[in-house]
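Appendix B, Record 12. Input sequence as logged:
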Amino acid sequence: MKKQWAKFSIVIILYLLFLLWLESWLGLIVIPFIYDVYITKKINWQWWKDSDNPVRTIMSWIDAIVFALVAVYFINLFFFQNYVIPSSSLEKSLLTGDYLFVSKMSYGPRIPETPLTMPLTQHTLPILECKSYIEWPHWDYKRAKGLGKVQVNDIVVFNYPAGDSLCSNIRYQAQDYYQLCYGYGYQIYSLNDNLDSLSAMERREYFNVIYNAGRNYINENPVEFGEVITRPTDRRENYVKRCVGLPGQTLQIKNRIIYLDGKANKEPDNVQYTYYVKLRHSLSDELMKELGISMEDLTSLNTNGFMPLTKHAVATLGKRKDIVESISIVTDASEWDIYPLNGNMHWTRDNYGPIWIPAKGESIKLTLENLPIYERPIKVYEGNDLQVKDGKIYINGKQADSYTFKMDYYWMMGDNRHNSADSRYWGFVPEDHVVGKPIFIWWSSDPDRRGIDGIRWSRLFRFVDNIK
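Logged structural output:
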C-alpha cells in the first residue's frame, strides 16, 4: 500500500499541476476514479483479464487501441501535432510535402471548443465522409499560458477564419464560401462602374444585393453545391502562413513591400512573385531543381505564361539569354476579390491598406466607410448583433459610433506572394484561431519525384525559426 500511495500521490500532484496550468477545475471530477485505480480498487477496470478467449484477446486489443487513441488525443490537444504543407503558398520557405512538428506550447494550447472528436482527424472521417466530431458540448474560447506570443515574421498554424461556412459538396469545400457568393452575385448582376459616386449606405445596399443573389443561387442548387454547412472554430481547416502584422499595428502594402506603422518590414529570404517568362528552350530538370522550380510552377508557365520565382531564380534566368527571351514581373491585379469584399477600397494584392489590426481592449471609431473592414470581427468572431438602419450602426440593439475589441487579431500572408490565399483575401486572423508554431521539419518529400530521389535530405530536422 505504501507503493500505491506513493504512485497515487505522484499522479495526483502532476494532475493538479496540469489543471492549474489549464486554469480549469472541471477535471476534479476525475480524482475519485484515480483514487480507486490506485487505492480502493472497487471497480474492476481490467475485468476482461479474468475472462476466457476470445473475449480476453479481443478486449486486450480494444484496451490497447483505446489507450493509444486517448494518448494521441491528449498529446495533440495540448502539446504538439503534425502538419503537412498542402500547397505552395509559403514556397520557397516551406515546400509542398514538408511535414512539420507544430508546438501547441509556444503560444499556449486552446481548451477544446468541441472536445468530442475522433483523434487524428480535423473535421471529416475518412471513407465515411461524415463529421468526425460532435458539436455538443461546445465550450467558449480559452487558452492556457504558453511559452511566448506570436511575433512578426513567425510562421503560424491557424484555423481558416473564413471557414465558418462552406458548401458540403467536396468539389467546393476548399473554396471560400463568401468569395463564391460574391462571384455568382456578380454573374447575376452586372458590375456597377459608378460605385465611387454612391454614398457609403448606397454602396452597402448594392453589395448586399450582390451577396444575397449569390447566396440564394447556391442555396437553390444543392445538387451542384450541396448543403451550406458550418464548422466550429477548432474544426476548421488548418492553414499555415507567416504573421506579418500584429495587434495594434497599422499595415500597408506599397508596390509589394509591407510597411508596419510606416516602416518597411523585411521580406522573407525566399519571397516569390509571379513573372511573365518567355523561353527560347525548355528548362532542364537540373536547372529546375537548382532554382526550386516545381512542376506546378512549370504548368502555370505553360498554361498562363507566368510562374512564381524567387529573386535568385530571376537573376539566374535573366543571365541565361540562351534559354530565356524575356522576363518581367506581373503587375496586373484584381480588386474585386480583395478583403473586404464589400468595401470598394480599390486595394490590390500589391497595394493594400493602410489597415489597422484590432487589438484586445483597444477601440476604433466606426463609420459606414470603415465598417466593411471591421464588421466581420465584430459580428462573426466576437458574436455581436450588428445592424445598419437609416445610415446608423447598431450593435446589440444600441446605436454605436465606436467599438472595443475583445480579442487580438493578426495579419497572415504567404511568402509566395502572388499565389497565396491569405489575409489580403479573407482578412484578420483572430487569436482564438491560432493553433501553434511549427518548430522543425521532420520529413520532406518532393511530390514531383519518386522514391529516394524524392526525399529532400537537406530539409530533414531543419528548424523553422531559421527560415527567415
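The first strand starts at residue 80 and ends at 84.
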